[in-house]
Structure formats: structure tokens, C-alpha cells
Amino acid sequence: TTEVWVDDRRGSQTSLSAPWITDAAIAQFLALLTKPSEAQINGVTIYDPCVGFGTTLLYSSALVNNAIAVGQDIDPNIVSLASLCLSLRNCNATLSIGDSISGPVPSPPISADVVLADPVLGMKVPPNIETDSRWELGNPKGSLSNAWVQVVLRHLNQTGRGALIVEHDWLNASDKVSVDLRTNLLRRNVL
């Protein structure tokens, strides 16, 4: 199942925050939403396709035993800083540089028990990727939230749980693409 949390705090960022840093309360909330059952708590693979400083991986991996934490981010400097931050907090994570929206799909594909994402919002999907095969539920047509929903779903295993922060107006968007995507999510029983 996938949890979607609408984020309207982005417009009020202070000088102490940045789009690549997930607030600790939000990271903890996402981790609790996706916490595996007690029967599945060992050796859980956790993936964050827009890892930023790694806060979501840190909180989620703390809730399970022997977590396999994997993250990816487009910015090499952020990946380096995240690696340092996570290692200082004793969170063993494998991080890579890559663009989860327009870059190549990892090979082999990541099949995770938990996928968490708090992406930078307010941007558009590059137009050259709208025919990409990764858009199984429909072309995102420029909506980054439509794309991120599909990135999270693509990397979940059959019993996995995902949580994603989306733009404030995504749940109310009335354009055909967003309505069709939300309809497909409901039909597949993944929302």
C-alpha cells in the first residue's frame, strides 16, 4: 500500500531548512506509516529515490532489524553529505548518484519492502521522458507528483509499503492525467 501525505509547508521554509533536508517529524511520520509488521521486521530493504540528507532512511532503518538502506539523489554533493551524516548516526546505507525521474532505472531494479520519498516539489517533469516505459499508470504530463507516485510504486515489492510527500493540490487536481492516475491507483488497490 502507498500512503500519500499532502505537504503545504514548503512555502514557509526558513533559512535553516532546504528542500533536500526532510524535517525530522516528517521523516518519523513516514517511517511509522511504512513500518513492516513484527513478522517482517528483519532484513528489510528500505529505498529512498530522492534521499537528500538521508533523514527518512535514518528513521525508517531504526524501526527494523538489519535494515538494508538504499538511497539515490541527483546531486553528488548531497549524496556525499548524506553518506557522512548517515555513517555518523551508525546507519549503514548504500547511496548512489542518479536521477530517479529522468535517469535510467537502476539495473537490477530495486525491489524494496519500504519506499519513502520526500522530493523537491514545484518542478515539472522534463518533456523528453513522457514516453518512458516507467510510467505504467500513465504519462505524468509534466506533473512531478504524478511521476513520483509511479517511481515509488515501481520500486515496491509485492508486499511493500510506500509513503510519499506530494504537492498540496495534487489530491484535488482536476486535469485528466491526475484524475486518471488516481483512478488507476484505486483500481489497483494501492492507495
Description:
The chain is an alpha/beta fold. The chain is 28% helix and 20% strand. It is built from five helices and six strands; from the N terminus they run E-H-E-H-E-H-E-E-H-E-H. The chain has helices spanning 24-33, 55-61, 76-88, 144-154, 176-187; strands at 2-7, 45-48, 68-73, 93-97, 112-117, 156-167. The protein has a six-stranded parallel beta sheet, sandwiched between helices. Helix 2 (55-61) links the parallel strand 2 (45-48) and strand 3. Helix 1 (24-33) crosses helix 2. The radius of gyration is 16 Å and the shape is globular. The model is unreliable at 1-16 (pLDDT under 50).
Low-confidence stretches: 1-16
Q: Average pLDDT, to the nearest integer?
A: 85
N-to-C SSE string, H for helix and E for strand: EHEHEHEEHEH
Shape, principal axes of CA atoms: globular
Strand order of the largest sheet: 1-6-5-2-3-4
> Major sheet, described briefly?
6 strands, parallel
Instruction: Please tell me how large the radius of gyration is.
Output: 16 Å
Which structural class fits the helix and strand makeup?
alpha/beta
Question: Helical element count?
Answer: 5
Task: Compute the separation of the termini in Å.
Answer: 6 Å
Oligomer: single chain
Tell how many strands the DSSP assignment holds. Answer: 6
| Estimated share of beta-strand residues | 15-25%
* DSSP helix fraction: 25-40%
Provide tags for this entry.
191 residues; alpha/beta; six-stranded parallel β-sheet; 5 helices; 20% strand; disordered N terminus
